[in-house]
Amino acid sequence: xxxxxxxxxxxxxxxxxxxxxTALGRLAGYFEMRQEQAHERxxxxxxxxxxxxxxxxxxxxxxxxxxxxxxxxxxxGLKASMQAEAAIGESYPWVNAVRGLTRPxxxxxxxxxxxxxxxxxxxxxxxxxxxxxxxxATAATLWWFGDxxxxxxxxxxx
Length: 158
Prior knowledge:
Elements (H helix, E strand, L loop, with lengths): L1 H87 L4 H28 L2 H24 L12
Helix pairs in contact: 2-3
């Protein structure tokens, strides 16, 4: 009987240790799975950040291309304006005088309008109206008189 009891105790002890080993293995597997899932979540978050950065870079690149296109168009407009004015040529002296006075008179008129609006407008409307009129007057001043620099003749002398 001692033999049977010893065998039974050994079987029970082996089974118990086997169950404990299985439980520890499962517990370790659970923690490994949690760690893998956390790693995957971090990887996905990192990939999401990379995709967002790529989208932002593409948007900035598109915005830069639009700015370049807009600037090129502005320069093309200025060039066309200058060529059109150069193509007019000489005319009667009074026509040349009127043509020469048009820009200064319009510029002074725009500045007078800006000043009149500022003096006559109420406090509420003064800000936005003045900004718009000042923009127009400044644009006229810089556009019309900015191209009045001395023309260079090829070969060096102005």
